[in-house]
Amino acid sequence: VTPLPPGSAGPSPVPGMFADRTEPGADVQSLWRSARSARCEVKTCQTGKISTAEAAAQSHTARDTVVQTEQSKDTVQDVHQEVQVDYAGLLLFLQRVEDAVIKELNKNWKSHAFDGFEVNWTDQDETVLCLHTLSYPEAQDQNLQVTSVSWNATGSVVACSYGRLDDGDRNTEKSYVCTWNLDRRGLNPQHPDLVVDVPGSVMCLAFHPSQPSLIAGGLFSGELVVWDTSRTEDPVIWRTGMTDDTHTDPVYQVNWLPDTKHRNHSRLLSVATDGKILVWREERDGRLALAEGFAIVAQQIPRSTRLKKMAWGEAAVGVTSLSFSHFDPGVFVVGVEGGYSLRCSTAAETPALLRPGGSVPLRAPAELTFSPHAGPVYSVSCSPFHRQSCFLLPPSPRNLFLSCGTDGQVHVHSMLQTQPLFALQLSKKYLFCVCWSPVRPLVFAAASGEGVHLVDLARSMQKPTVSLKQSMSNCPVYCLEFNTKHTRLLAAGDAAGTVKVWQLSSDLTEQGPREMSHLEQLASEIMD
């Protein structure tokens, strides 16, 4: 039975309530299916949060995999099998080349092409660098100057003396000796590792050549003092005191000498402007006793070569510097206030004509007077390089030395002649110190009123190779010293109370082949 649609009037009334009839079918759409289909489309069109699958894709365990082939047993057996050598053929070959090989070996043995040349495996540096600028503020507050610098036996500690080279009460003014260990971690450039208070101006100092803790110093008063830097309470272990043997003028240089009679002891040499060169020995009671002495007297200098201001009646000639020959330890050179350099001998027996006094008679050591500078000589330095006598090399008596002074010139001398081989005008101001390089026969350094000058004679004999400004104010540099252990280091002290440690470039510290021969040839050509 198909119900009538709403609002239909229906068929015309017929007799009876119901009648059989056939109507076409009707379609009813499913709302549940369409709603479910819509929800599925939304799900498939939108993407939820993508989750990575690294944990599942990566392995949590590692395992080494053999990627090289292992040696087979057959190969191992082959290696251990005896190698077949044709000994008869090898013997014939060696007999055939024996004469030629021996000839070449003898030729190389007698060659001097690489004399003094050492292979350097370190990096090459082409510039000179300032590694450290050291100072003691308390000394600078007193306007004290660095009068001397010295390296200890290990080459790791540098010491400087504070004093006064200009006007001032140098005899009573307090001064200092300071040391810095450059190998120490946390180095403070303005805080020395050791400060020794000295009642008087310290004019010079020198470390002991083999005992790193011993320093000798010369004072303005003429006294000598030796300090032991390992003793912090009372570092003074020896001193001369003020006696009849003590210098009467400031001590400008001290040197340690080996004691030929006692191997475990050293002697101390001092020079001063009173003209005396004194050798001291250590005593058990802490005194330095005079062992022997020399004096530079005017009578040993020819009248024709003297400066006008030097009178014949003046007995002593002020000594400012001294350097021992590395070729003959009995020969030394001194520089004097009169502008001369003199060759001297420790074997001299001539008595010095001085006023009697002192416990030891003094001798006159001068043997040869060299052509003078135009002013006082402040420093001399003997070359550490010379040819040793042997059956391969002819003995060479030539020994070179340098001298410098207030005329701003460096004279290069041979001990065989009075005239200098040549002279270099390095500065228009004073030259206070000069020193040969310990590793380069043709290199030396000079301290001037302008700074530090480094000269390489292989490059130029007319001008410095490198000129270094010690400070922005161009204050004078009074002292310098090469480090013989760490040969690229050079220490220089100035009038501002500063010590600078310079690292030299490779070309100034590496000896080239035949450099010694070049120096010998240079001197020979000039002498000829």
Automatic annotation (TrEMBL):
User: Region annotation Disordered: residue ranges?
Assistant: 1-21
State if Cytoplasm is listed as a keyword: yes
Principal localization?
cytoplasm
Gene Ontology terms for molecular function: dynein heavy chain binding; dynein light chain binding
An example GO BP is: intraciliary transport
Q: What cellular component terms from Gene Ontology apply here?
A: ciliary plasm; cytoplasmic dynein complex
**Subcellular localization, per the record?**
Cytoplasm
**Per UniProt, which keywords does this protein have?**
Cytoplasm, Repeat, WD repeat
Biased segments, Pro residues type? 1-14
PANTHER family named in the record: CYTOPLASMIC DYNEIN 2 INTERMEDIATE CHAIN 2, DYNEIN INTERMEDIATE CHAIN
Q: By what name is this protein known? A: WDR34 protein
- Organism listed in the record: Falcunculus frontatus
Q: What is the lineage of its organism?
A: Eukaryota, Metazoa, Chordata, Craniata, Vertebrata
Gene behind this chain? Wdr34
